[in-house]
Design a protein that fits this description.
With 309 residues, this protein is of the alpha+beta class. It is 47% helix and 11% strand. The protein has helices at 3-20, 43-50, 54-61, 70-79, 84-92, 95-99, 111-119, 139-146, 163-169, 171-176, 180-197, 202-214, 216-222, 272-289; strands at residues 125-128, 134-137, 232-239, 243-253, 261-266. The chain has a five-stranded antiparallel beta sheet with strand order 2-1-5-4-3. It starts with a helix and ends in a 20-residue tail after the last helix.
Length: 309
């Protein structure tokens, strides 16, 4: 499937799915009960609400036109009751947004990003790529989100974790979130946004296919076509070392690095959750300061400094 055909499919799927999720009563139309043969609104009803012809709307939904004006797209977004993130997604799927796309740059962690991560101190930090790959994290980020994975696993493409894959396929990560379903919906919604922005990324398409095949929960949520914006989200976590804590995850876009985001986790000042994050850092520090021991005898092991030529 080439990029143009894929774009038609994405636009048509989004419009069809969101129309099916709206009930006539939601938009002030009469509901004739069992006499309705389609779920949600009919095409002609949505076209009427948006102020466009039925024939034109059908062409949009069938993917036969990708050149809707911003005014038409806004009218459709209003009729479909889309939120701001979904409205932007609809525009992204349109022809004008797609024509401006360029070849995707390679994802990398620049010295400037590493400097930012270091400047955030003991706050847990994870750097995510456009496919939700974990490109790097600091020690606290590794311990909070994936302490069962090696700290250097993001450094190698073969072992690099993916946050969406962890949420749906990793039992440890699933147990971290008290309301796992809320976290899962957010992850899927952000992947939906990414697919709209990068429809020609084969690795992203492969990830979606893998998750659809391996996780029935992902397949169900993916079919809803919900979109989530990056920003600030609150979650309750259940950490195996420090117990339950309420955190805010802040997503910061990296300038000039397309699709890369720095996710910083904080807790309310003076709260038990902030104390839990401090305890996690203290535990990490005490582990780092503990002398190395022989795995068989438990005796201290003294590591000689490296020789310099």
């Amino acid at each position: 499937m080439d990029e143009t055909t894929h774009g038609r499919s994405l636009l048509g799927e989004f419009l069809t799915t969101r129309r099916a999720q709206l009930k006539p009563a939601d938009v002030g139309l009469p509901d004739y009960g069992d006499r309705r043969r389609v779920p949600g609104l009919r095409r002609e009803e949505l076209a009427q609400l948006a102020g466009v012809s039925v024939a034109y709307y059908i062409r949009l939904e069938q993917g036969l036109s990708l050149n809707a004006s911003p005014q038409v797209l806004d009218a459709l977004a209003t009729a479909l009751r889309l939120d701001d993130a979904e409205r932007r997604h609809l525009h992204t799927l349109s022809g004008d947004a797609r024509k401006s796309r360029r070849r995707l740059p390679a994802e990398r962690v620049t010295p400037a990003v590493r400097q930012l991560v270091d400047a955030l101190g003991d706050s847990p930090v994870v750097v995510l790529g456009r496919r939700s790959d974990i490109l790097t994290w600091n020690r606290a980020g590794n311990a909070l989100f994936a302490g069962h994975l090696a700290a250097d696993s993001p450094d190698r493409a073969a072992t690099r974790p993916n946050s969406a894959r962890l949420i749906f396929l990793d039992a440890h990560t699933q147990d971290l979130y008290v309301d796992w379903h809320s976290k899962a919906r957010d992850v899927v919604g952000k992947l939906r946004q990414a697919v709209g922005e990068y429809p020609d990324d084969p690795h992203l398409a492969s990830l979606i296919g893998e998750l659809t095949m391996r996780s029935p929960q992902f397949a169900t949520l993916w079919a809803e076509h919900r979109v989530r914006a990056w920003g600030m989200v609150e979650y309750r976590m259940r950490h195996p070392m420090v117990g339950e804590l309420d955190v805010l995850q802040h997503s910061l876009a990296v300038p000039r690095e397309q699709g890369i985001r720095v996710v910083v986790t904080t807790a309310a000042p003076g709260s038990a959750s902030q104390a839990a994050l401090r305890l996690l850092n203290q535990t990490l520090q005490s582990t780092a300061d503990r002398p190395a021991t022989h795995p068989a005898t438990g005796a201290p092991v003294h590591i000689a400094p490296p020789l310099h030529s």
